[in-house]
Amino acid sequence: MAEQTFDKKQLAELITTTAGMLRLKNVHDVCQLTAESVVKHSVFQRSVVSILEADDTFNRMGFGGLSDKEIEKLHKMPRSSLSSMEKSLSSKFRIGRSYYIPHDQADIEGLQSKRKPTAAAKAKQAWHPDDFLFIPLYDPDGKIIGLISVDDPEDQRRPTAETLLPLELFATQIAAGLENLRNVEKQQEMIQRLRDQQQVVLELSTPVIQIWDQVLVLPLIGSVDSARAQQIMENILVKIGETGSRVIIIDITGVPVIDTLVASHLIKTVSAARLLGARTILTGINPEIAQTLVHLGVNLSDIGTKSNLARGIASALEFTGKAIVPVK
Amino acid sequence: MERTRHISISNEHDIVLCRRSSRELARELGFNLVDQTRITTTASELARNIFEYAKKGEVIIGVIENHEGHLGLKMTFIDKGPGIDNLDAALGEGWTSHRGMGLGLPGSKKLMDEFNIESIVGKGTTVTVVKWQK
Amino acid sequence: MEIRVPILKIKNYLIVPIQVDLDDNAAARLQRDILIRIEQTGARGVIIDISVLDLVDSYLGRLLGDTAQMAELMDARVVLTGMQPPVALTLVELGLRLDNIYTALDMESGIELLESLL
Question: What's the fold here for domain A8-192?
Answer without folding.
Answer: Beta-Lactamase (3.30.450)
